[in-house]
Design goal:
Strand order of the largest sheet: 2-3-1-4
Distance between the termini: 36 Å
Number of helices: 12
CATH topology of the largest domain: Multidrug efflux transporter AcrB transmembrane fold
Radius of gyration: 25 Å
Low-confidence stretches: 307-315
CATH architecture of the largest domain: Up-down Bundle
Number of strands: 4
CATH class of the largest domain: Mainly Alpha
Shape: elongated
Structural class: alpha+beta
Strand content: 5-15%
Helix content: 55-70%
CATH superfamily of the largest domain: Multidrug efflux transporter AcrB transmembrane domain
Largest sheet: 4 strands, antiparallel
């Protein structure tokens, strides 16, 4: 059986202050990028609008396409190359177009395709996919996404409070909140569009990070019973080192899969792969440098029966 990083004695907890500084700097940098590329961009699932994927026989002139669509009365359409040089997506999300969707979702898509057909000729392209979402549906989806993330936090806290105790639950929830905030900053930094796929990736990151934290906390609980005279500081380091081989192998194989999706999966799955790849990294980071120091702080603030252990931990921190 392959064994790597066996019997390591790395002092991970000692670097918690540096970890906090790096996290704060990264989050500030992520949200500060709004100065250059604006606030978050939402997909039509949340704003309402029309998306059409067109496959042209020859690579079109994008400026000509945009002018044709604007002449049809649809201003501000977003035109993007999608994969090959002849595949393009057209998104209509301006207020007038979204309002028109309430009367008939297919109307906007038909106006776009009719205008392009009149300009380029019949048979110059084929419609590969078409999606239209009304403004009311988009608003409901946005509210549902926020509720889903909030409920996941409540379920996480309840689960950990039952499986371990409230101290572990508080530390895990704060670490998970760190992952969500850091991942949102990463999304802003890369200016990824907020879509249902990205929300799914966020929820997946939440579960992945929580699982990693539970693995370490489970070992902490075992070591608390096994080493009754050892300080919590040393127990946390011991537990992280004992789970390090598992973490390296698990995260390494998972990142290999998400990197494959990132480079080979295509444009549709790429935002999901970006968020998941970063989420694996930040989930590992928070389990070691956020959850464990917070657990130690909570233990020092509200010590259990073994106060000596907490005092020794506080002295080392």
């Amino acid at each position: 059986m392959l064994r790597i990083l066996h019997d390591t004695k790395i002092d991970f907890i000692r670097h918690w202050r540096t970890a906090i500084i790096l996290t704060i700097a990264f989050v500030i940098a992520g949200f500060a990028s709004s100065v250059f590329n604006g606030w978050f961009h939402y997909s039509i699932e949340f704003t309402g609008g029309t998306l059409i994927q067109l496959e042209f026989k020859e690579a079109p002139d994008v400026a000509r396409l945009r002018a044709t669509i604007e002449r049809a009365g649809i201003a501000g359409a977003e035109i993007q190359q999608f994969g090959s040089a002849t595949a393009y997506t057209i998104k209509a999300q301006d207020a007038a177009a979204v309002a028109a969707q309430a009367a008939g979702a297919e109307g906007v898509a038909r106006r776009i395709t009719d205008a392009i057909t009149a300009d380029l000729g019949a048979g110059s392209f084929t419609v590969a996919d078409r999606m239209a979402v009304g403004p009311r549906v988009g608003s409901e989806l946005r509210r549902g996404a926020i509720i889903a993330i909030f409920i996941s936090f409540l379920v996480t806290l309840a689960y950990l409070a039952v499986r371990f105790e409230w101290r572990f639950g508080v530390a895990a929830v704060i670490a998970t909140a760190h992952d969500i905030v850091a991942t949102i900053a990463f999304i802003k930094m890369l200016d990824l569009e907020i879509s249902l796929t990205v929300i799914a990736a966020l929820l997946t990151v939440l579960g992945y990070s929580l699982n990693d934290t539970i693995i370490i906390f489970d070992r902490v609980r075992e070591n608390l019973k096994k080493h009754k005279r050892m300080s919590l500081y040393d127990i946390l380091n011991l537990s992280v080192n004992e789970t390090l081989p598992r973490s390296v192998l698990t995260h390494g194989t998972t990142i290999a899969a998400t990197m494959s999706l990132l480079f080979l999966g295509g444009d549709v799955i790429r935002p999901f792969a970006w968020v998941m790849t970063f989420g694996i990294f930040t989930g590992t980071f928070s389990s070691i440098f956020v959850a464990s120091p917070i657990l130690m702080w909570v233990e020092n603030k509200w010590p259990r029966e073994n106060e000596a252990r907490s005092q020794v931990a506080a002295a080392k921190a």
